[in-house]
Amino acid sequence: MRSLERQGHSPAVAEDGPAALRMAKDQKPDVVLLDLRIPGTSGKLLYGKMLEHEPQLGSRVIVLSGESQSSEDAAWFAAQGLPVIPKPFELEGLFATIERVGSREHT
Fold it and tell me: CA torsion sign, 96 to 92 to 58 to 10?
């Protein structure tokens, strides 16, 4: 969190899937860091729900994937054209991806 703040971002953390969905609706984030494993749901399911309610978020998602997570899920997200960052990751790579995704034209 502090690293993101030092980069000029205002991060918010959701404790579970329903909270993340509420935040996506209420806060209209510039970028969403979406883990494949989320308490109470999955990254794929949450992504689908976010798109139902906030379709413009589709181009603003960066997927974080840990070693123990399904390579099928990571491949699915990559097929959607979403950047997938494997964990553990270097902060510089994360910051560059956030910059790239956040600077896209969002409709």
Answer: negative
